[in-house]
């Protein structure tokens, strides 16, 4: 794959920030991905941390990344191992970017909530 295309796809995946995994759905299981008790560890730890400053990658979460990458490599018939793909995932700072994108989403929601409250207050003033 050309370098520019690869970079574009990686940046798009990081910006979209919906790659987090939980337990496999039926459609994923139908592709041959089996349940694994480690699945969901990364999502759980990231969600509990709430910020990149508070997040520390545990061995369990690292194993979740490797297991998911191994499953993806199998499904996509990639030559790279789950360990190699996990290293690339971490080197590309997907986790940092997820926290950055979540912070942007929270700021937008907070701004919209403040705007809605202001509209509500303005409507209430006209009733007196």
Short structural description:
By secondary structure, this protein is mostly helical. It has helices at 3-16, 26-29, 41-49, 59-76, 82-91, 94-125.
Characterization of this structure:
With 128 residues, this protein is mostly helical. Helix content is 68%, strand content 0%. Helix 1 (3-16) packs across helix 6 and helix 4 (59-76) crosses helix 5 (82-91). The protein is elongated.
- How many helices? 6
Roughly what percent helix?
Answer: 55-70%
Summing up helix and strand content along with how strands pair, one would put the structural category as: mainly alpha
| String of helices and strands | HHHHHH
Q: Which blocks of ≥5 consecutive residues have pLDDT under 50?
A: none
**Largest β-sheet summary:** none
Number of domains: 1
